[in-house]
Every structure is written in C-alpha cells, then in structure tokens.
Design goal:
The chain is of the alpha+beta class and about 400 residues long. It has helices at about 15-45, 50-55, 75-90, 90-110, 115-125, 235-270, 280-310, 315-340, 355-365, 370-380; strands spanning about 65, 70, 130-135, 150-155, 155-165, 175-180, 185-190, 195-200, 215-225, 270-275, 275. It folds into three domains: about 5-125, Butyryl-Coa Dehydrogenase, subunit A, domain 1 (Orthogonal Bundle); about 130-225, Beta Barrel (Butyryl-CoA Dehydrogenase, subunit A, domain 2); about 235-380, Butyryl-CoA Dehydrogenase, subunit A, domain 3. The protein is about 50% helix and about 15% strand. Helix 6 packs parallel to helix 8 (about 315-340).
Length: about 400
C-alpha cells in the first residue's frame, strides 16, 4: 500500500526543514491529541490551556510571525503544522489558528509597541489565550453591518454589543474586539477581566466539540485609548486577519481528509466481504482513486499558495478564497465517501471519520461560507460585486 500523498512523491517538493516541522507536529498530535480527542469530543470539552502551553513550548503559536517570542517560520511550514493538527482534530487546529492567525496577528499587525510587548510573548508561549471577536448573532457573513459600538467618552472608549461563535472566548485572557465608531470600524485589545465583559460557553454543539466556543457580551466595557489598535482603521483590518487565518484552513482541511482516507484504506484492507477484503473490489478502488486525486490536487494548491506567500509576503483575498473553497469542499466530500467505505462502523466514535465529517461542516462555513468565497472569486473574474 502507498500513502495517498506518496502517489506523486509530493514530499520531494518540501525542504528538509519543512519535513522536520511536519514530523514534529505529527508527533505532538499523535502523542498529545489522538489518544484523548474522541473523549474530548464526546464530552464536549478540551484542555485549552494545557494544550496551549505544550504548543507554545514547541513554537507553534503565532509561528509564522516574527519577533516577540514567535518562531518566524515560513508560510509553508505553518501550513504543514495546520495540516498535521487538523489530521488529529479540526478543533485543535482552530485553537492554534485563532490564537496565532487571528488574535496574535491582529495585535502584531495593527497594535502599538506597548500592546505587542504586553500580549504577544505570553501568547506565543501559550501562557495567555486570545480570541477574535468579529462575528455577531445577526451579522455573520456581513460584518460591515455589525451592531457592536465603540463610543468615545473623554479619554476612554465604551464598548457595547455582543459577539457570537468565538473560538477560545470562554478561556481567553485577551479578546480582539471589532466595533463600529463614528469614523468607522476600530479594533481593541480587551482584557477579559474588564468590567462589563462576559463570555458564555456555547453548549450542545454537534461539531467542533473538542473546541471551546463562546458568546461574548459587552456591557458598557470602559477601556483607555491605549487598548485601541492604532493601526486598524476600517473593515479592511479585520478582513485581512480573516485572510490570514483562511490560509491555515486551506492546509488544515487536507489533514482531516488525509486522516479519513488513511483510516478507510486501513479498514478496507482488513474488512472482508464475499470472501475477500473490500479493498479488492472495483467500486471501492474507484472511490479511493478519486479521493486520492482530489487530496493531491488540494495539496498542490495549498503548496502553491504557501510558496507565493513566502515569495511575495502576502496573498490576495481571492487567492485564499480559491484555496479554502476547493480544499474544504473536497475534504468534506472525502470524509463522507470514506464513511461509506466503513459502512455502519463509519458512524462509530472508535474511528475518526464521522468526527472529521462533523467538524468539517463547521470549517465549511466559518471564516467565510462557500458562497462568500464564490462571490469573492466571481467579483475578481467579472469586476462586478454581487454582495449587495
């Protein structure tokens, strides 16, 4: 048997350092996450702070950022880390993505030097947890119409409103909150022990259960002007953070798909029906061939985006939208197909496939639904906006 990504010898496209980072992340996922994640998922809990400290020691938090205790790794190395973490569980990868690509990136890109020194070293070490408050109960895909308000009161700012579906919020030490002020959208680094700030854990999730998700309430939270991110002006700032985080999803979804495919291949090699392993039947092999094809195409797309990011320093939003739209859509299709190969066992928690499939339902819609990414790509192709 050949591993799915070995068909095209894709490892030859990676550097020795990139392969070493991938191996490190695979080991930590195998040792620290896989033995426990089925239980975390079933119980709807995850030891965020313990994992953050371990990931911090390995330099995985904000690993693609430079300075302030961050590793300064390449975009491809960060992508490979996301792939290995999501091969264990999407919720665990979300912890790392939200910490590094949303909360830390927002402060690193738009914060003052004082804010960077206050928050980033502890966040890189996993000693401090961050979250990113943009999505609202009534404004998911349309952040331009956010209801959260920032009102100037003397030298202070007063924040009022609420945010919904915020990863890490119940355990966060700092929340990057986006609010509308008189002169446009502003960002704030809000200590979560501020008076009027509250985060409630969202229960009864059927997806991303090994992830801490919360609803944030801002009841006249008073902040000094020093809490405002001075470089963030307008909606472009939070949207750039989303572009940053979506890059990790492009890679992460491949990890979930690869794990499903590897599980199905192992199962089909030993599961016998009609006197022989089901891996020997033509219809099963056709499924495997199609899934392996899409997995490798997705990897090549992710690698191309990563190399472009490392060469140019940034990716255009529509480029990341192409990656997220394709790779998450194909990953969920692979998970569903692998479930059929396992038959009834495919829904058992003893195997990871149904958990991956359920998680990918969230990955499909968060940080931009498929429809939003289609419109981003369509606008670039036609020159016409279909958002309004």
């Amino acid at each position: 048997m050949v591993a799915p990504l070995d068909l095209l010898d894709l490892d030859t496209l990676l550097t020795d350092e990139e392969r070493d980072i991938r191996a490190l992340c695979r080991r930590v996922a195998d040792d620290r996450v896989r033995p426990h994640v089925a239980e975390w998922y079933e119980d709807g809990r995850v030891p965020v702070r313990e994992l953050a400290l371990e990931f911090g020691k390995l330099g995985l938090l904000g690993m693609h950022l430079s300075g302030y205790g961050c590793a300064g790794a390449s975009a491809v190395a960060y992508g490979l880390a996301c792939m290995e973490l999501e091969a264990a569980d999407s919720g665990v990868r979300s912890l790392v993505s939200v910490q590094g690509s949303l909360a830390m990136y927002a402060i690193w890109r738009y914060g003052s030097e004082e804010q960077k020194q206050r928050w980033l070293p502890g966040m890189a070490a996993g000693e401090l947890i961050g979250c990113f408050g943009l999505t609202e109960p009534d404004h998911g895909s349309d952040p331009a119409n956010m209801s959260t308000r920032a009102r100037r009161d003397g030298d202070d700012w007063v924040l009022s409103g609420g945010k919904m579906w915020i990863t890490n919020a119940p355990v966060a030490d700092v929340a990057v909150i986006w609010a509308r002020a008189e002169d446009g959208v502003l960002g704030f680094a809000v200590p979560t022990d501020s008076a009027g700030f509250a985060a409630r854990e969202i229960k009864r999730k059927m997806s991303l259960r090994a992830s801490s998700t919360g609803e944030i309430s801002l009841d006249d939270v008073r902040l000094p002007d020093a809490a405002r991110l001075p470089g963030a002006h307008g909606l472009k700032a939070p949207l750039s953070c989303l572009t940053e985080a979506r890059f990790g999803i492009v890679w992460g979804a491949l990890g979930a798909a690869r794990d499903c495919l590897a599980t199905a291949l192992d199962y089909a090699a030993t599961r016998e029906q009609f006197g022989r392993p089901i891996a020997g039947f033509q219809l099963t092999q056709a499924k495997f061939a199609d899934m392996a094809l899409e997995l490798q195409k997705g990897f090549l797309l992710a690698l191309h985006l990563g190399r472009r990011r490392d060469e140019t320093g940034a990716l255009r939003p529509e480029q990341v939208s192409i990656g997220k739209l394709n790779n998450v859509r194909e990953a969920i299709a692979i998970a569903r197909q692998c479930r059929t190969i396992l038959g009834g066992n495919g829904i058992s928690g003893e195997y990871p496939i149904m958990r991956h499939a359920a998680n990918l339902e969230s990955v499909l819609t968060y940080e931009g639904t498929s429809e939003i990414h289609q419109l981003v790509i369509g606008q670039k192709l036609t020159g016409l906006s279909a958002f309004a």
